[in-house]
Amino acid sequence: MSEISWNLSIIVPVLNESDSLEPFIEQMLPVLIGCAPNFEILFIDDGSTDDTLAQLKVLNRQDARIRYVSFSRNFGKEAALTAGLRHATGDAVVPMDVDLQDPPELIPEFVRLWREESFDMVYGVRASRPEDSAAKRTTAKGFYHLFNRITHSPIPGNAGDYRLMSRRVVDVLLQLPERNRFMKGLYAWAGFKTTGVPYQRPSRHAGESKFSFWKLWNFALDGLVGFSTIPLRVWSYIGAGVALLAFLYIVVLVAGVLIGGRDVPGYASLMSVVLFFGGMQLLSIGILGEYIARLFIEVKGRPLYVLQESSEPDNSHLPAAHDHVVSGHTTPEHE
Ligand code: UDP
Ligand code: MG
């Protein structure tokens, strides 16, 4: 990386965002021109069904710094981010949402901390989440708390995907082979010199959130199961504890019979023990299932996403990122 000429990549997953593209570009261009000698905005069309892709093509034709790759269907934001990291060519990469909830004004500060104070990772911290409901805020808080208790790479609360990563962090992320892409966990796993910049998170510019309660629940489960084996191991302890209690109870029962004679009515205690063990077993089998299901997915080794088209010369079969030059679809395939 030379001192004067470096390149910043913005990667933006988009799913049916035709109303947000233009305002996003309008706000981003002046900021980027002001703080980076070279830059690219790389959109990942995550299987949009509106005219998002058509708009991306037009934007790319007008300005070769705006590039895109397009998935054959919806593969999810995490897959889109991975595709973005793979195709980004910059010396630093910033993932952003297109709905202007990640304020572009923060980028110069991210860049400053990276260039001048040599942080490898600078993430935005939401100082407030006014638009999220109280329920969403509390569950998010509970999730971070639990995650950080049971994993070895704690993630900062209230940090999203909005962050700047240096090339070496990006290269680490690209080496991780897993299909379960819980990106927030992976960012933290990579390590390196990291800092946070607080900001106010504004409301969505247009359209509505693409994440339902159910999607978020599964997302949280992916995070926990992908980064901790404690849910799997805790059963040995619970099992041992319950077995000990059962043993004590047996002693009490036997002693009761020996001292007080035979005691026929035992329906209530019998029932509660049977139900309790039944529930425990189902729960532990369910947790085994969570891991086995993910093992199954990893073992199949399917690609994370399928590209349908892109503004690049076709190189989707190549494993790593910066194997092609910046600029748009007219790029000759040399190097
Ligand atoms: N997104 C995506 N694929 C999905 C869901 C969302 O690419 O399956 C994109 C979406 O277009 C947006 C970003 O991810 O650019 C964040 O989505 P959203 O604003 O709906 O999430 P929230 O801000 O509510 O967390
Ligand atoms: Mg949003």
From TrEMBL:
Domain Glycosyltransferase 2-like residues, every copy: 9-172
Bias kind Basic and acidic residues: ranges: 320-335
UniProt topology in membrane: Multi-pass membrane protein
Transmembrane segments: 234-261, 267-293
Gene3D superfamilies for this protein: Spore Coat Polysaccharide Biosynthesis Protein SpsA, Chain A (3.90.550.10)
Subcellular location: Membrane
Highest taxon listed in the record's lineage: Bacteria
Pfam families: Glycos_transf_2
Keywords on record: Glycosyltransferase, Membrane, Transferase, Transmembrane, Transmembrane helix
Main subcellular location: membrane
Region of interest: Disordered: 312-335
Protein name: Glycosyltransferase family 2 protein
Organism: Halomonas colorata
Organism lineage: Bacteria, Pseudomonadati, Pseudomonadota, Gammaproteobacteria, Oceanospirillales
